Each structure stands twice: as structure tokens, then as C-alpha cells.
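Shipment paperwork, digital attachment
Item: protein structure file
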Amino acid sequence: MNRVLFVTQKRSDAIGIVDQNQKNELKNLDHNFDFLQIGEKGTTKFQIIVNYFKNILLLLKTARNYSQIFFSWENPYGILIKLFMPGKKITMTIHHIEEYRGKTIIGKLIFSIMDHFIAISQFTKDQLIAFGVKPIKITVNYNGISKSFYPEKLENFQDFTYILYVGTEVPRKNLKTLLSVFKVLHTTYPKLKLVKVGKPGTEEAKKETDQLIKVLGLSDVVLLHRNFISNDELRKRYSNALCYVSLATLEGFGLTIPEAMACGCPVLASRIGPFEEICQDESILIDPLDEEKIIDKIKIYLEDQNFRTLKSGEGLMKAERFDWKKNVNFLVAFFTQKTK
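Attachment content:
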């Protein structure tokens, strides 16, 4: 097997977590991957432009020494490598295809000239096919979850009962519906709290969330943890929550759902493609916009301990499917075949 250039980008979101786990597992194997991390995207227009050209120069300089290049996320850099070095074989992982739905030219170029795509779910593969990518150019490889996630029930972890959500506050995460639902639940269960963990995603999303919490009068019962927390701390939050709720309207995979399951936390999730693949259980799937049904379902979690126990046990078994060793062993086998 010839050496493969594994390209990642400096980032602190879910894709950054995936990258780090893949690299850690690969380093434990006798592999033929070399790693290149390019600079972060930037926040201002000036930073974005400067970083873009810095990244291009670094990529072109490094890529010339490799025949196989693997991008860990969807991006336009591969187009330039194909333009200047047409003989290079490029494989690209696709997480969020929707990012390129409105960028017709860039999207068409990416999806037509890359050599192969790794989809993080069957749902993502189906989206790629809908964009015109031939099925033979797409392989599904599920993300894994860290071994840091396992049940850790603590008697005195919190002195209140809470529902947990982990993720950003951008519109597709649909946090506004969860807050609206929680407003209704709080009138019946005044001691119940909602714990939200994770960065806002954007400053605009942060402002909108803060404003909505204030308008709904939930400032004392919605706890926002927007700073970094370790996997050990996150494991405790998953393990001791009443349930984990994600009402996202769009996802490529949904890493937090198997994380919650691995900690024995019962899950309630949107009835969308990737969540259906992960959950495989109609009883824990819900229309993310039907507030009345969401409220009724959460009430079952609140009042029926047998149901919670059942879903906790089922979730533990389902989480075993999502393993970084499986994910990385696939990559090694895939590129071994490609570089023969």
C-alpha cells in the first residue's frame, strides 16, 4: 500500500471530534497514512480569504508527494488539486451535503470530479445519489463513539431531574421547538430542568436562544453550558439525565445519539433519515415539529420508569454498532485496495 495523505482542518465541532478519533485509532495501527491539518476557516471575511489561500498553498505543496489524498470533510480544495494535479486520486468524506445545495457550480464540481465519497450514513449516500453521484462511487462508513462513553450513574450528581440536549443552537438543530415544549412541561413538572451542552455555533444563534429563553420565562430552569467540557464530564451528564432529546430537522449522522445510548441514557429523536438508521425503533422517534406529540412522549419518559429502563438497555446494545476501530479498519482496507 502506497502512503495516503489524510487531510483534516482545525475545527472544534463534531467533524473535528471525528477527525481526532480517526487519527488516534490510526496511530495505534501499522498504517500507511500521513496526516496534514490545514488552518481553520476563520470568522471574518478577511480571515476566511487569507486562510483559504494559505491552505491552498500548503495543500498543493504537500499533495504532490502522494497519489492518494483523503479529505475528512466536504470542501472545495479537492477541486484545485484536481485542476493542478489531475492524476491524483481523491476520496472525500461527506458529512453535510446540504452545505452545497445552493452552491450549484462548486457542488457540481465536487460531486462530479472527486474519485470516491465516504458517506457517514445511508441517508447521506441517498442524498449524494440524488445529487447525481453514481452509487459505485459511494461507500457508507458509520462514525464511531469514544470509549469514554459508558454508564456512570451517580446518586448525588445533581439535585434535580433534567432533560439533556448536546449540540449547537443553529436553526437546523431546532432548539426553539425543544424550548417551547419545555415551557409547557415545566408548568406540570416545575422541578424539571433542561440542560443544554455545547457551543452556540454562531453569535446570531446564541442571541436568538438567549432571547427566546427570556421571553419564555425559562432563565432559571434552562441551564446553558457553552464552554468546553471533557468527555468524562459529558459522560456523567448523559448517564444521569432523565432522557436525551434531539429534535434536529437535518443531520448527516448525529453523533450525540449513540453517545447518549452508550451511557445508558434513553433517547427521543427526530424521525429523520440518519436518526432512523441509528435508533431503529419507532417508539423513540418523533416528528420534530409536532410539539403536542413531543410533549406526550416526554411525559412517558417522565412517568414510566419501566419504559426508561427498557429503552436504556436497548440503547446500550445499539451503541455497540458505532465503533472507531471498525470505522478505521474500513479506511485501512479501503485504501489498501485503492493503492494496489
